[in-house]
Amino acid sequence: MRRIWRTALDPIVPYAAGKSLEALAAELGGLDLVRLSANENPLGPSPHVVEAVRREAARVHLYPDGGSTALREALAARLGVGPDRLIVGNGADELIGLVALAAFEPGDEVLVPHPSFEPYTTGVALAGATAVPSPLAGYDTDLDDMRRRLTPRTKAVILCSPHNPAATIVRRGPLGAFLAALGAEPPLVVLDEAYADFCDDPEYPDGVALLRQHPRLLVLRTFSKIAGLAGLRVGYAIASAETVDRLNRVRAPYNVNRLAQVAARAALEDPEHWERTRKLVIEERAWLSAELTRRGIAHPPSQANFLLARVPDAGAARERLFRAGILVRDGAGVGFPGHLRISVGLRETNERLLALL
After folding, report:
1. pLDDT for 170-211, tens place per residue?
2. Contact in structure between 245 and 215 (CB atoms under 8 Å)
3. What homologous superfamily does CATH list for 18-39+272-356?
4. How far, in Å, CA of 51 to CA of 94, rounded?
């Protein structure tokens, strides 16, 4: 029998994004829904972004800049790096896939914290490489375990800080020691900092600063969370010029659309909105954390815009919240059964959530 599909696809489970808000609202008879399941920005995008998209809408018949040049230049000025050290993607998800396409081959091993963001291992599997899971130590990334699992076949190490879904971080000292221990010929280290904008721990390291000492480090960031552009899909990576060159060789020619590029540039031009979002999330996260603790609901300390709460009968609690119009993520789907992953919302929403829990 003629085989059509690659065998690498057989064990892969499609990412479960869930039903659309529109479909869920219809299921509940038109009830207004608040989604605290996807770690979205509770304030939405900057008004500058909305206006920039409106102005650009009449030009959507034109192909976008294939290299996202103006956006990379704006990011370079903000981060203090050269534009040749940046690549922009259709969300950070695409960039994870580009790393796999450019670097991973059959026989390679890729160390991945377990559990963590599912697309890490999907890219590894599609490349024919082997994902080597490193179990978390409770809710924390176990760098000692990762170091023990390194072999000559280790092509890359993927780290997620703040971790999704645990919301914990890898601190400056341990990360520096881990990178130094990799030696003179280290594997590629992918540091996913999608939630870095919500960190207020003084021991949180700056991945971009670490690039000066570690040229095989690649830092992932995104406009989805802090800038409220999740629906437009804009992520970016900061790395060595050599790494960026290799990723560009497997990148689609027009991978970031015209509206997304314009929106991301407008977001960079409104730092006040950026700071409003950060301030709101940090303040509400502290309040929500304290209120959960007061009710006896345990959770690891969060440095992201969500909390991972251990809830009795989590499945029933999630369903109860859903029927009342609040969506949260069932931890069983992200490797933490008995938990709910809850995005930080506005105070009114957080109060409703607590009352229902």
Report:
1. 999 999 999 999 999 999 999 999 999 999 999 999 999 999
2. no
3. Aspartate Aminotransferase, domain 1 (3.90.1150.10)
4. 27
The rounded distance, in Å, linking the Cα atoms of 223 and 267 is: 8
Contact 196, 172 (CB under 8 A): no
Query: Distance (Å, rounded) from C-alpha 20 to C-alpha 100?
Result: 29
CATH 3.40.640.10 in the chain is located at 47-269
Going across the sheet that includes 130-135, the strands are 86-89, 235-238, 217-222, 188-192, 154-160, 109-114, 130-135
Are 191 and 144 within 8 A, CB to CB? no
Indicate the pTM of the whole model: 0.94
CB distance 122 to 12 below 8 Å: yes
- Distance from CA of residue 47 to its chain's centroid? 24
DSSP 153-211: TEEEEEEESS-TTT-----HHHHHHHHHHT-SSPPEEEEE-TTGGG---TT---HHHHT
Lookup: tokens for 121: 């291992």
Class (C level, CATH) for 47-269: alpha beta
Tally of CB atoms within 10 A around 328: 26
For residue 69, give both structure tokens.
């040049």
Check if the beta carbon of residue 102 is closer than 8 Å to that of residue 249. Answer: yes
Predicted confidence (pLDDT) per residue in 215-261, tens digit: 999 999 999 999 999 999 999 999 999 999 999 999 999 999 999 99
Residue type, 142: D
Residue 34: beta bridge partners? 326
